[in-house]
TrEMBL record, chain A:
CDD domains: TM_PBP1_transp_AraH_like (cd06579)
Major location (coarse): membrane
Topology class, membrane: Multi-pass membrane protein
Originating organism: Salinarimonas soli
Stated name of the protein: ABC transporter permease
TrEMBL record, chain B:
InterPro entries the UniProt entry points to: AAA+_ATPase, ABC_carbohydrate_import_ATPase, ABC_transporter-like_ATP-bd, ABC_transporter-like_CS, P-loop_NTPase
Membership in a protein family: Belongs to the ABC transporter superfamily.
MF-aspect GO terms: ATP binding; ATP hydrolysis activity
Protein name: Sugar ABC transporter ATP-binding protein
Gene3D superfamilies, sorted: P-loop containing nucleotide triphosphate hydrolases (3.40.50.300)
Boundaries of every ABC transporter domain copy: 5-240, 256-499
Top-rank taxon, per record: Bacteria
Length: 324, 507
């Protein structure tokens, strides 16, 4: 029987990322003047919305025990397609980016579930292919979006005093949490990651669940690309490099097991915000003139922090997984 | 009454090897039907064809009078066939509720109704007298509870036919009794059950009729009350009672005055090993016989230090106590050639030489460098001695035949110079010629002083090789047969009835 202590530890490990996030916010609040000022908060949310979308898709994929390396180039492709369609209006641009993402996701889904290719290999291939498509479509340079059709509102606009990209990400995470926790689809996704063979024998649609997460991941990456184009005023064929790693990091920091079967949408969001805030805080440090960190050093610090969080989490989890 | 399920003339081949040849199975409504056969007889394949996991090559399946061919276990489930597979097939990280309810979840406004689902899971488990927190992951509960969760899932589907593939293998007596009550309850409501088990007592306790399979065929169907235990065992193993013996061929009779290398008394461990006793003397081949699930491999694993000991005494090379770990056992002069070559034995990508010297490596290494000369000498010696057929010692072991792979594994242990070698199903999956060769090899080794404990489901093999045989049944040693008493009928009688009638068998 479980003693009270491991119970607490289990809760801690589940909410570890939230606690770290709150600690970081407190630290920033005490140290910098405008850390919790409207401008800083809104720009952090605006900038990180696209990473949040990509990470949400990645979370589902990782919950099934898979991986999607193609999200970065899919976002780049989405941004180019959206920029090309932006002269026709907000909706065509939005749908175009989404469709581009869905297309890449569909290829991933088919190759992985029908041809039984490992997700790592399949999505590595589509990562290269999507990147190539983006460069071809864009003619090897960034594609300006139309400023006449209101398309840029998707990246730069506000709604009720809140950035539109942040609204989109918030809606996606709400829907995502409901889908994971309150639909049979979500539970099947987790079951497949926990034990694919058993899931099949239980008569659950294992292949369909696996295929669906790549479609979702592709669509969300495409959507992130739309926001990218709208935010920076151009389709960016060479953007998105390393996004997949950011997303994997956010998902893992959020406590989702890389082997699949365990995961949470809320913690993934906390993971995204955690990684985003570290970047933000390093900017503040630079601003204070205390230290002067180049972008390279920022990556080193982020990497070290990521390692720290993951190690702490693994230790907490290790203590709870001993048989009760 | 027309049967609920009728499978006729089912053929199935895997990579050209027939697994089923014209197999059949018929189950009446509200009937508990026993399906038995040795390992590899085709029971699991037949069940997996029924549930849509495998596609049949030929034959006809009628369920409820209609021809069916399910494309997936999901389809079978929706049609009213629930299955509990032999290995517990649950998702360990997910909650008990999810494992029971997924696939027929309760919804409210299109979303999952967790409260109703938890309630349902609790109610189902309450039928088994189990009250647990259904929100916690399945893996936090003991195996018996997990098994009950799997059973709960199966009956929760309100199936017309529930297939149970060895459901009792991880349950204790009380839990088995509870399960039997549930089965009787199902029967009363008109649900049919296919019950696969190797425990004869259970079959007689709960089943109405029995189908016996052997070598991919259905060899006998009858009412449980009309088939005696001995019939059951002999039909299953396909042995005639009149079979003659080859006493002269039998190796290594107990040497007078030879000391025991190992003495096991009243060993218990886990649910499978309850009261096992045996001993092996120097230079002797001793057989450990019993039906599947009788606790042979489990006992051997405890003796080898791979699993913890529950109770009893083990004396190994004059030292008291079971080894604490396999490494400890190896130091004490034990070797263990395990049953599953692919899973526990060979490293397919490595060469014959590397596979052969894997366990010996620490001794062949000086200051971190492997002594190539000595390695080659040892490898060459064993390849010649055991007549391992390979292109060169550098050939990857996966390219060798099953028999030759087994010889390499044998050599791996022999080069450690063990005093006692435990062989678990040493000839499984090996062709007839290689079988005889390996048995000869074992006999030769025993003449040179090696003690051997041989676990085998092939009675012929046991009778041919062993000087003494201990028969296990339901985790207990029920008979010790010595010398002329080692006959197939005697062993089978002991497997079927236990100690009292073992004598009648050979008399």
């Amino acid at each position: 029987m479980p003693s009270p202590a491991p119970q607490t530890v289990r809760r801690l490990s589940r909410h570890g990322v939230v606690i770290a996030l709150l600690a970081l916010i407190l630290f920033g609040y005490l140290r910098y003047d405008n850390f919790l000022g409207t401008f800083n908060v809104l720009s952090v949310l605006r900038y990180n919305a696209m990473f949040a979308l990509v990470s949400l898709g990645m979370a589902y994929v990782i919950m099934t025990g898979g991986i999607d390396l193609s999200v970065g180039s899919t976002a780049a492709l989405g941004s180019v397609v959206a920029a090309l369609l932006s002269p026709y209006g907000l909706v065509p641009g939005l749908l175009g980016g989404l469709a581009a993402g869905l297309a890449v996701g569909a290829v991933n889904a088919l190759v992985i579930t029908r041809l039984n290719i490992l997700p790592f290999v399949a999505t590595l291939a589509t990562m290269l292919a999507a990147s190539g498509c983006a460069l071809l479509l864009a003619g090897n340079q960034s594609v300006s979006v139309s400023y006449e059709t209101g398309f840029i509102e998707l990246g730069q606009g506000d709604l009720l005093g809140f950035p539109v990209p942040a609204w989109i990400a918030l809606a996606a995470f709400l829907a995502g949490a409901i889908a994971l926790n309150l639909t049979a689809w979500g539970r099947t996704v987790l079951a497949v990651g926990g034990n694919e063979e058993a899931t099949r024998l239980m008569g659950l649609p294992a292949d369909r669940a696996k295929a669906s997460v790549y479609l979702v991941s592709g669509a969300l990456a495409g959507l992130a690309g739309v926001i990218l184009a709208a935010q920076f005023g151009a389709g960016q064929p060479i953007e998105g490099v390393g996004w997949e790693l950011f997303a994997i990091a956010a998902v893992v920091v959020g406590g989702t097991l890389l082997t699949g079967g365990v995961g949470s949408v809320g913690s993934t969001l906390a993971g995204v915000l955690l990684l985003g805030l570290i970047f933000n805080i390093l900017n503040f440090e630079n601003g204070l003139g205390q230290i002067s960190l180049s972008a390279y050093w920022q990556s080193v610090v982020r990497g070290a922090f990521l390692l720290l969080v993951v190690v702490i989490q693994a230790r907490l989890a290790g203590r709870t997984e001993e048989p009760a | 009454m027309s049967p609920l399920l009728s499978m006729r003339g089912i053929d199935k081949r895997f990579a050209g090897t027939p697994a089923l040849t014209g197999a059949s199975l018929e189950v009446a409504p509200g009937e508990v039907h026993a399906l038995i056969g040795q390992n590899g007889a085709g029971k699991s394949t037949l069940i997996k064809i029924l549930t849509g996991y495998h596609a049949k090559d030929a034959g006809e399946v009628l369920f409820n009078g209609r021809p069916i061919a399910f494309a997936s276990p999901g389809e079978a489930q929706r049609a009213g066939i629930s299955t509990i597979y032999q290995e517990i097939n649950l998702v360990p990280y997910r909650s008990v509720t999810e494992n029971i309810c997924l696939g027929r979840e309760t919804r409210r406004f299109g979303l999952l109704d967790w409260r109703a689902m938890h309630e349902e899971a609790r109610a189902l488990l309450a039928r088994f007298g189990i009250a647990i927190d259904v929100r916690r992951p399945v893996m936090t509960y003991p195996t018996a509870v997990q098994q009950m969760v799997a059973i709960g899932r199966a009956i929760g589907f309100k199936a017309r036919l529930v297939v149970m593939d060895e459901p009792t293998s991880s349950l204790d007596e009380r839990e088995v009794a509870v399960l039997f009550d549930v089965i009787r309850g199902l029967k009363e409501t008109g649900v049919s059950v296919i019950f696969v088990s190797h425990k004869l007592d259970e079959l007689y306790a709960v089943c109405d009729r029995v189908t016996i399979m052997r070598d991919g065929r259905t060899v006998r169907v009858g009412a449980m009350g009309e088939v005696s235990r001995l019939d059951l065992v002999t039909t299953m193993l396909g042995r005639e009672l009149e079979r003659t013996l080859h006493d002269d061929a039998r190796g290594g009779p107990a040497r007078a005055g030879a000391g025991a290398v190992i003495e096991v008394r009243g060993l218990s461990a886990g649910p499978r090993v309850r009261d096992v006793s045996f001993d092996v003397r120097e230079g002797e081949i001793v057989g450990l016989a019993g039906l599947l699930g009788a606790g042979r491999t489990e006992s051997a694993r405890v003796v080898f230090g791979a699993d913890p000991m529950g109770g009893g005494t083990v004396r190994l090379s004059g030292r008291d106590g079971a080894p604490a770990s396999p490494a400890d056992a190896i130091r004490a002069g034990l070797g263990f050639v395990s049953e599953d070559r692919k899973l526990e034995g060979i490293v397919p990508g490595l060469s014959v030489r590397e596979n052969l010297t894997l366990a010996l490596m620490p001794q062949l290494t000086r200051a971190g460098v492997v002594d190539e000369g000595r390695t080659r000498a040892i490898v060459d010696r064993f390849i010649e001695r055991l007549r391992i057929k390979c292109a060169s010692p550098e050939q990857p072991i996966r390219e060798l035949s099953g028999g030759n792979q087994q010889k390499v594994l044998l050599a791996r242990w022999l080069c450690m110079n063990p005093r006692l070698l435990i062989l678990d199903e040493p000839t499984r999956g090996i062709d007839v010629g290689a079988k005889a060769e390996i048995l000869n090899l074992v006999r030769g080794l025993s003449r040179e002083g090696l003690s051997v404990l041989m676990i085998s489901s092939e009675l012929e093999e046991v009778v041919e090789a062993a000087a003494r045989v201990f028969v296990l049944r339901d985790g207990r040693t029920v008979a010790e047969l010595d010398g002329d008493a080692v006959t197939e009928p005697a062993i089978m009688a002991a497997m079927a009835h236990g100690p009292e009638s073992a004598e009648a068998g050979h008399g």
